[in-house]
Amino acid sequence: MTSEFRVERVTSAAPELIYSILAEAAAWKEWAPLVSYSELVRQGTPDPLGAGAVRRIGGLGFLRVDEEILESRPPHYHRYTAVRGIPVSNYLGEVHLDPAEGGTRLVWTGSFEPRVPGSGRLLATSLGLVIGAIANRAIALAERDASTR
Q1: Which superkingdom (predicted)?
Q2: Is this structure's pTM higher than 0.85?
Q3: For residues 29-36, average pLDDT
Q4: Cis amide bond preceding 75, omega within 30
Q5: How far apart (Å, rounded) are the C-alpha atoms in residues 30 and 36?
Q6: Do the beta carbons of residue 147 and residue 17 sit within 8 Å?
Q7: 114 upstream amide cis, omega within 30 of 0
Q8: Who has greater pLDDT, 136 or 34?
Q9: Would you place residue 149 in the very low, low, confident or very high pLDDT band (cuts 50, 70, 90)?
Q10: What one-character DSSP code corresponds to residue 45?
């Protein structure tokens, strides 16, 4: 059975700025909560950060997740899958950055099939909280960067 989470935020920052922060996987360790390790393992083609790219994100001393970018349409859309590192199958994440009055509406969704029966709700809640914290920090960074320009 498929489980899902959804995170929505509105910010005064432009989609281009938020997209660039989220796309630069190697920098996540500098700003994202719970992330102590991040790198670009494989570049995409033709965009190094686009489709085909694989980013590795680690944290909490034991967690290491590899995510492959499936599609990117800067600065408005980003789709990826987790290829290893979390206890789910068929994970699909999408980030939509749409213009909103005075800024951007961010909608970050994820769907997956839990490997352990009955764990879907707990995993969806946990992933939603982590992704929500990452979205909050990315937005704060984007708003700070926008105010110093």
Answers
A1: Bacteria
A2: yes
A3: 92
A4: yes
A5: 8
A6: no
A7: no
A8: 136
A9: low
A10: S
Task: Count Cβ atoms within 10 A of the Cβ of residue 142 and give its class: 0-12 exposed, 13-18 middle, 19 or more buried.
Answer: buried
Q: Which three-class secondary structure state does DSSP give residue 108?
A: strand
| Residue 67: burial class (beta carbons within 10 Å; 0-12, 13-18, 19+) | buried
Q: Specify the amino acid at residue 81.
A: T
pLDDT of residue 40: 95
Cα–Cα distance measured from residue 46 to residue 60, given in angstroms and rounded to the nearest whole number: 33
Contact 39, 25 (CB under 8 A): yes
Task: Break the chain into its structural domains and give their ranges.
Answer: 3-147
Full strand arrangement of the beta sheet holding 3-11: 3-11, 103-114, 88-100, 77-84, 63-73, 54-59, 37-42
Per-residue pLDDT tens digits for 34-84: 899 999 999 999 999 999 999 999 987 788 999 999 999 999 999 999 999
Q: Which CATH architecture has domain 3-147?
A: 2-Layer Sandwich (3.30)
Asked if 106 and 97 touch (Cβ cutoff 8 Å), the reply is yes
